[in-house]
């Protein structure tokens, strides 16, 4: 059964603005990561704990589409969902909405490889069946 | 005639590493931007000057593929090329090579919309014909 | 009368770590700023609004002392107080405590000059008496 | 004998600007670090190598004074010197000059503790006499 995930909130900071007066495009990848950490915690999977047990979710690719700028002090509501999961690869999709206006400002995804600390692929299903189960349950493929 | 562009070099910094001991994935988008600024300068187009004249190249989308990690004190050799240019949209592709090993570590692209400061699309060809000419000449579509 | 200020909370992020496995020292200045934005909001002074009205609080100096490292997923409890205020200059002091352990990890300050947008000093008392009053009331000089 | 150190150069990047149209204050601490890495390399001491040998130079405190703003595409000329060295503590002072105008924009310092990887103080003089010698020679106390 899927766990109902609460959105993650981030207030846009002054140090994240650029001289165009908007949030610099590189920061949204950091907000995706903040949301992902929170998402994993809501699934009962602390990423910090996973690393200590020897599992890493390295980023293979990341993509971001900028639809509307966000500005200093805007509140971003960020949602994540797993849209692909194979036991050794995972795709997470994100949407960033301006909480006040409800406008979709940014969307994107990150693709991850699940590795043992020694940078070898891990077969989660066999080696960490509990983590496998949680992530697999949570996967919602997009058509 | 295309201008021969020299690669851009960036030394990977300590503050760009993360606790995995590698350069954090979000930084490569910043290195792409550093390279793009240098690329534009080599074309005789200071982006700072363009902004003062009222032209902005906002980022519409950005994508990055992580093939091999880079580490503290590695020297990155970054190349850019324009692979699509229409007068109001532009795509720039990047490759990041570890100078020492010659290994391709990161590739990606950014897509840009060319706007007037008031956030209206600009028809470069008519309004800034010289900028149009330079960018159009430099475009090398990938097949 | 002084307004009772709630602490500001920040979860330490992965992208804020470095290869020593701790939060990189440069980030604490950004956390000070996050806390300051929140502090001003609690005083009823949105810094974004102040900028729109033409008042800027530029940073003249900043100082940070690192007592204990913080790590990924630690929750930082950050408090700010104004310790000097003269109408055109202001000092804010900060303390960062690890919420879980209660240990003081970081302390520091920022000194600010209050300017009009045109980079001229502003006499807050005369030109923005309401802002002056709030900040002056909030000032708690350290002996 | 002191080694003659060349200044370090950094081009101010777009992602380092903020909505005030200047380089955000937090970035100068990162430029100090870039300069320090380069400074150590010029002394024949790769900080990366030192870490592999088990010596860490953790930051105990950092200070920055902002005299004049720097802007996008400005070239910063950054100089460092060791002004205090005791074998287990070290202070490095920095100056950032706008290359074009020659104006001093930023000054500051960082204080470091020299530690073994296990976070114990190291007596450089005994344990790493060669590193001790180089740093000690380079020290220029300010009066």
Return the CATH class of chain A.
Alpha Beta
Shape call of chain A: elongated
- The end-to-end distance of chain A, rounded to whole angstroms, is 20 Å
Determine Rg of chain A (CA atoms, Å).
16 Å
CATH architecture of chain A: Roll
Percentage beta strand of chain A: 25-35%
What is the helix fraction of residues of chain A, given as a range? 25-40%
Written description of the protein model:
Chain A has 143 residues and is of the alpha+beta class. Chain A has one domain: Hotdog Thioesterase (Thiol Ester Dehydrase, Chain A, Roll). Helices cover 26% and strands 35% of the residues of chain A. Strand 2 of chain C pairs antiparallel with strand 2 of chain D.
Summarize the structure.
4 copies of one chain form a homotetramer. Chain A is 26% helix and 35% strand.
Tags for this entry?
143 residues; alpha+beta; Thiol Ester Dehydrase, Chain A; five-stranded antiparallel beta sheet; 5 strands; 26% helix
Topology:
Four copies of one chain form a homotetramer.
Chain A lengths: L7 E4 L15 H16 L4 H7 L1 E12 L8 E11 L3 E10 L5 E13 L7 H4 L1 H10 L5
């Amino acid at each position: 059964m899927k766990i109902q995930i609460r959105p993650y909130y981030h207030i846009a900071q002054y140090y994240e603005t650029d001289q165009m007066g908007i949030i610099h495009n590189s920061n949204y990848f950091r907000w995706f990561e903040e949301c992902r950490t929170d998402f994993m915690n809501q699934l009962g999977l602390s990423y910090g704990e996973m690393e200590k047990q020897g599992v890493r979710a390295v980023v293979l690719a990341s993509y971001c589409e900028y639809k509307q700028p966000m500005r200093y002090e805007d509140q971003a509501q960020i949602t994540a969902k797993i849209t692909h999961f194979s036991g050794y690869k995972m795709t997470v999709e994100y949407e960033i909405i301006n909480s006040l206006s409800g406008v979709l400002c940014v969307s994107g995804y990150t693709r991850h490889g699940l590795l043992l600390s020694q940078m070898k692929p891990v077969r989660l299903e066999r080696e960490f069946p509990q983590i496998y189960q949680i992530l697999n349950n949570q996967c919602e493929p997009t058509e």
